[in-house]
Amino acid sequence: MAEYDIFINKNFEDLKDEEEIVGVIRDLSPGKKKYKCLCAKLIISKDPDKYPDRLWVRLGRGQLVKDHPCSVKIVEILKPY
């Protein structure tokens, strides 16, 4: 299981469940690649057990939105801009 976080600029309640979006996620895996940013197409579920990978959602200033994470399915890793 991989662990990521994402920063959002809107309310968590406005984040649509089960909709494919493009976003920048940070890899939280320990080691040399910790905090590596990836641009990806992903599907977020507010159910923490739906997908195998864990996603922590943060607001623009870095505050965690919830005490428990969401789950995420990475559809495609995109090339950096």
Task: Explain the overall architecture.
The protein is mostly beta strands. It has one domain. Helices cover 0% and strands 46% of the residues. The protein has no helices and five strands. It has strands at 3-7, 20-27, 37-45, 53-58, 70-78. The chain has a five-stranded mixed β-barrel with strand order 1-2-3-5-4.
Which structural traits does this protein have?
globular, 81 residues, mainly beta, 5 strands, single chain, five-stranded mixed β-barrel
Structural class: mainly beta
In which range does the helix fraction lie? Answer: under 10%
End-to-end Cα distance: 27 Å
> Uncertain regions: pLDDT < 50 for 5+ in a row?
none
- Shape assignment: globular
The pLDDT mean sits at 90
Count of alpha and pi helical runs: 0
Please give the structural blueprint.
Elements: E1 3-7, E2 20-27, E3 37-45, E4 53-58, E5 70-78
Short structural summary:
0% of the residues lie in helices and 46% in strands.
